[in-house]
Amino acid sequence: MSPHVHTINFAKRLLMGPGPSEVDPRVYRAMIQPVVGHMDPAFLEILGQLQQMLRDTFRTVNTVTLPIPGTGSAGMEAALINFIEPGDEAAVVVGGVFASRMCEVLDRCGAKITRIDHAWGTAPDPEQVRKAVAGKKLKLLGIVHSETSTGVCTPLEPLSKIAREAGALMVVDTVSSLGGIALETDAWGLDVVYSGTQKCLACPPGLAPITLSQRALDVLRNRKTPVQSWYLDLSMVEKYWGPERSYHHTPPVNMIFAFHEALRLLLEEGLDLAQARHRRAHLALVAGIEAMGLRMFVNDPAARAATVNTICIPDGVDDAKVRGHLMQCYAIEIAGGLAQLKGKIWRVGLMGLTASPSNVLLLLSALDGALAEAGHKFPRGAGAVAAEKVFAAS
Ligand SMILES: Cc1ncc(COP(=O)(O)O)c(C=O)c1O
């Protein structure tokens, strides 16, 4: 064997980027259960339990609620390609990288796209969306709930109403929100909602949960052409997850074990409490960041996602050096900006297990040293003090 091949042995990092986030030892233990066959009755029972926990997490009674093998992008592909046929019209509200990706996927399906761009770092104006879709025969309206490239969380209900009025399916990306920010699939009339396991759901990357309303199923079942991807064709995938249990592909058994345990952990805590924990961690981080003389990228506090926190890099401070300091001295991972925000912002994920007081306080203390070394002038120690006050008050 080549001398370059060695045992994988990473030192533990604290994952405070925009995903993946921290994973509980219970989830790792579930992952190392022996592999079982995908038709094993004991495994089928696990599938049923997982589906029900997923429905509870999405807040839906949708029968077709299942995890697709693959990361959040597989969820995005499945959520779009199953409902669009060449020549169909679709609209996407775009305020960042991930909504732009929705347009790219739709373009590859031959959709006629209405792209409704709004300024990055702000929430979209529903009136602008209403005007942009007026008179169009739309098959779907796409939106990213928490835009991970900017840290903006968009209220979904007003947009869902617009989709309904336009006769379109409402397709929502909740990759960086599901579990961490309130979401009501049924009550808000959302038709197709997908996510990824590695963020607020506190599981390794590898599955993309998705849920489909009856309206979405009707569109899927009335297609005139086959879905362009055999693997992601939900009309076939659902037959393994439904009462037929007919084989389509071999499910990633150990990822399903892991996800089952991650959902159990989330629901043991309770969705509402978990979301309140995310919100407290976010508010404490913001208080700390502002006390250190830094500015949040999203100006309007109401438009900020609790899960992905975007911080403007102060003038003269070297992005890579600060992130390098955090990793070398504290083994903390945060991320830089994407696309037009590269070198301009840091992205701090407070998702799943990562969203805890101790992690927020550790990051602020670590940033204190990193920023001082980078020449930023600020009252040293003020960040952690401000964050502690928020935690103490809540
Ligand atoms: C909002 C959003 N959508 C889609 C994706 C793609 O997910 P993945 O990288 O797991 O394929 C991400 C990943 O960060 C995301 O944040």
Give me a quick take on this structure:
This protein has helices at 25-31, 41-58, 72-81, 97-108, 126-133, 157-165, 214-221, 234-241, 253-269, 271-291, 319-330, 357-373, 382-393, and strands at residues 14-15, 65-69, 89-94, 112-117, 138-144, 146-147, 152-153, 169-173, 192-194, 207-212, 308-312, 332-333, 335-336, 345-349. It has 394 residues and is an alpha/beta fold.
List the helices and strands and how they pair.
Elements lengths: L13 E2 L9 H7 L9 H18 L6 E5 L2 H10 L7 E6 L2 H12 L3 E6 L8 H8 L4 E7 L1 E2 L4 E2 L3 H9 L3 E5 L18 E3 L12 E6 L1 H8 L12 H8 L11 H17 L1 H21 L16 E5 L6 H12 L1 E2 L1 E2 L8 E5 L7 H17 L8 H12 L1
Parallel strand pairs: 1-12, 3-4, 3-5, 5-8, 8-9
Antiparallel strand pairs: 2-10, 6-7, 9-10, 11-14, 13-14
Helix pairs in contact: 1-9, 2-9, 9-10, 10-12, 10-13, 11-12, 12-13
The structure holds pyridoxal-5'-phosphate (PLP).
The site of pyridoxal-5'-phosphate has 14 residues, from α3.
How would you describe the overall organization of this protein?
This protein is of the alpha/beta class. The protein has 2 domains: 244 residues, Aspartate Aminotransferase, domain 2; 123 residues, Alpha-Beta Complex (Aspartate Aminotransferase, domain 1), CATH 3.90.1150.10. Helices cover 40% and strands 15% of the residues. The strands form 4 sheets. A 7-stranded mixed sheet has the order 2-10-9-8-5-3-4, sandwiched between helices. It is globular and about 65 Å long. The N and C termini lie far apart (56 Å). Pyridoxal-5'-phosphate binds next to helix 3.
